Amino acid sequence: MIPSLENLVEALSQLPTIGKKSAWRLALFLLEQNQEQVENLANCIGEIKEKICVCSECFNYSEEELCSICTSATRDRSVICVVEKPMDVFTIERSGRYRGLYHVLGGVLSPINGVTVDKLRIEELKQRVAKAKPEELILGLGGSADAETTALYLSRLFTQSPLRITRFARGLPAGMELEYVDQVTLSQALNERIAIHYSTGNKDNS
Amino acid sequence: MIPSLENLVEALSQLPTIGKKSAWRLALFLLEQNQEQVENLANCIGEIKEKICVCSECFNYSEEELCSICTSATRDRSVICVVEKPMDVFTIERSGRYRGLYHVLGGVLSPINGVTVDKLRIEELKQRVAKAKPEELILGLGGSADAETTALYLSRLFTQSPLRITRFARGLPAGMELEYVDQVTLSQALNERIAIHYSTGNKDNS
After folding, report:
1. pTM of the full structure
2. Is A25 near chain B, with CB under 8 Å?
3. What is the pLDDT of residues B145-160, one digit of tens each?
4. Of A85, B88, B103, B190, which sits with the fewest C-beta atoms within 10 Å of its C-beta?
């Protein structure tokens, strides 16, 4: 009917979480914006593939050979957080609470899907740890079964190294009411419960 | 950190229903696609403003002076469906059940927001009705208070014309269970209830 609009809808509906209806809504929204805004979006999309490569140190996306985190003078070089994918780096960065470096694995081990050790940046991690000698490796790999297996594999890989290996705490998400928590999370929250100390001689209530 | 990626995230998060987190997810998804797909999306976005204008008859989007619905030989020219915006045309078209023409008002009357009669294509609708002499005008304007007011205004505007003026039925949405229906919808469904006739002499059960 309107080929250029339908082509746009088709292209937009290829994006994740955007169905046909959302694609129509987005396309019609774009039509109502001014020329400059629409061109800006088109240019931004057009240039990412040219401009962005992968950091040769941590394998996060970067516009340079080394990314801005790996070259930063203010980051703590004694800690490397191992994550699955670039999105995880941005998620952790947004929290603003982590000042160490990253290592993007490019996935988690999943032999059934053909993701074996050689498909991930595990050899690169070994070399990096041997060379940079960090004090701590945080395995920031999420809670799926494959992620847990990968964390276990990595922790065993580095048992010989003089390294502190940690993982994220498991427990109740912030703001979650107890009645809505699933059983696995609740079990983990119970297993990994934290002692609350009082400063003056209180009795042991446990 | 990565200017070209952050510019894209910024541009994407200007779109409706796309927050910062979705924008990151979309941007990183695009990075993982091949050059061709990404360029295709950029081109589709880039060219819509150049290629698409507004149909001079029905005011829907079009690539020509007159849109494909207005010029179609197979559409029923005796019915015009008045809708608020182009999205509504696509919604009705998708149902595949309407074969008449459209008239896009460009909004609904809302004096508090400065949308007065002269801001909408109401004068154009009057001229079109006078010229094309359709048999029926369907007011397909949604259920908000402003939309209802607009429908009332339009129905009064054409009382002198030899026109059948209709609006969409109000009632239960398909598949909706009675217990989840809101009171207004239920009242309308009751008010506009439809008689079910039996072919052989049944008694009146009402």
Report:
1. 0.75
2. yes
3. 999 999 999 999 998 8
4. B190
